[in-house]
Design goal:
Blueprint: H1 2-38, E1 44-46, E2 48-49, E3 52-68, E4 71-75, E5 83-86, E6 93-94, E7 99-103, H2 106-139, H3 147-180, E8 182-184, E9 189-194, E10 207-213, E11 217-224, H4 225-228, E12 236-241, E13 245-254, E14 264-271, E15 284-300, E16 305-307, E17 310-320, E18 323-337, E19 340-345, E20 353-354, E21 366-369
Parallel strand pairs: 1-21
Antiparallel strand pairs: 2-20, 3-11, 3-15, 4-10, 5-7, 6-9, 7-8, 9-10, 11-14, 12-13, 12-15, 13-14, 15-19, 16-17, 17-18, 18-19, 18-21
Helix pairs in contact: 2-3
């Protein structure tokens, strides 16, 4: 009997201990859950930034090719003669009046000699005619000569004078032909093309050389109608050719018309130092037109988050101590300068934004604010 009582008492005591333990454990779990609900763990430690108003350069960017300011075509002005000298080649710099090529002039010299002889003969005939007229005038009143004879002398004098003029014109023509046997540069510059070949017989007007006048280059940029409306003659341009050179130029001319297909127009930019920096015709480059500057509301690039093709920032609100809640705000970007972007819409100057790590946050997250 005593043994049964002892077993029953032991079982009751054990049940009481187990029940108390379950109660204590349940209370501890409930308390932990309640504390977790009350204080959410921050998703990220962040620094805070605010939008800043700064002056941003206003630039227009365009692409285009380098071309010659003007090209002079130097051709043959005489026919039937053989080229006996070609003195320059492509890439050589020449001065105005320099002899570039020479045609064989033997036949032209022979024609000149013949023309000189014809002129001498005509001048002799004219002298004789002058003498006859002078004699006729002395005896015209004596009646020794008829009026018809006197008229013949006068006509002979005029005919002789006309033949002299014709012989002089013929001689001048031959002298001009001889001048054309020497092909000279019409301006200073650099030879960009040469089709003249030694021994070839050229025809009148045939191209022999092509010359970049004054070695002067220009850049022809293609811009839209809206961009062209912002440009003006005399505006400075920085033209850049990757891995070659950067050169400053000035707008010389704006095209009066736009292309009917692309609706773009050309801007002609003088490049005075292009040749010295190794820039060549046909090179492709980018030009930046400086239009001044204007103030803009900007934020650091690190504060932006790009999602699904749109740009977002995270604005802090409901701050409690070191912790705050963030809201995802969609923004519209404008210009860029260094590591900052212009904000056209979405935020205000006094907004407090997450300075970095925006890519790791979601709308409504709690964050811990780190003081600078």
């Amino acid at each position: 009997m005593d043994k049964n009582r002892i077993v029953i008492i032991s079982l009751v005591a054990l049940s009481a201990v187990i029940g108390f333990g379950f109660f204590v454990g349940h209370n501890n779990i409930t308390s932990t859950k309640t504390d977790a609900v009350v204080t959410a763990r921050p998703a990220l430690n962040v620094r805070v930034t605010q939008p800043t108003t700064i002056d941003i350069p206003m630039n227009v960017t365009a692409n285009g090719s380098v071309a010659a300011w003007q090209e002079a075509i130097i051709g043959a002005e005489i026919s039937g003669l053989r080229l006996k000298e070609v003195n320059v080649d492509v890439g050589e710099t020449v001065r105005k009046g320099q002899v570039l090529a020479v045609f064989a002039d033997e036949s032209v010299l022979a024609d000149i000699a013949q023309s000189r002889a014809a002129l001498a003969e005509a001048q002799a005939n004219l002298s004789e005619a002058h003498l006859n007229v002078s004699k006729a005038k002395l005896i015209i009143n004596s009646g020794a000569l008829s009026a018809q004879q006197v008229s013949q002398y006068l006509t002979g004098e005029k005919t002789a004078a006309a033949k002299v003029a014709s012989a002089k014109a013929q001689l001048n023509s031959q002298l001009l032909r001889h001048k054309y046997t020497r092909v000279v540069a019409t301006d200073s510059g650099v030879i960009s093309s040469r089709t003249a070949s030694l021994g070839a017989v050229a025809s009148p007007g045939q191209e022999l050389f092509r010359l970049i006048r004054q070695h002067r280059l220009e850049w022809r940029g293609e811009v839209t109608a809206q961009e062209m409306a912002q440009l003006r003659i005399g505006l400075k341009v920085l033209m850049q050719i990757p891995n070659v050179a950067d050169v400053e130029g000035t707008i010389r001319y704006l095209a009066p018309t736009l292309d009917a297909q692309t609706r773009n127009g050309l801007v002609y930019v003088d490049l005075p130092e292009a040749a010295q920096k190794g820039i060549r015709v046909g090179m492709f480059g980018e030009g930046k037109f400086n239009l001044g500057s204007s103030s803009a509301l900007t934020i650091p690039q690190e504060a932006l988050s790009l999602r699904e093709g749109y740009s977002y920032v995270f604005r802090l609100s409901d701050q409690n101590g070191e912790q705050a809640k963030v809201s995802q705000i969609k923004v519209q970007l404008g210009r860029r300068t260094a590591d900052r972007f212009e904000i056209l819409a979405g935020i205000k100057p006094d907004d407090r934004l997450v300075a970095s790590g925006a890519a790791f946050l979601a709308d409504g997250d709690n964050v811990r604010v780190i003081k600078e």
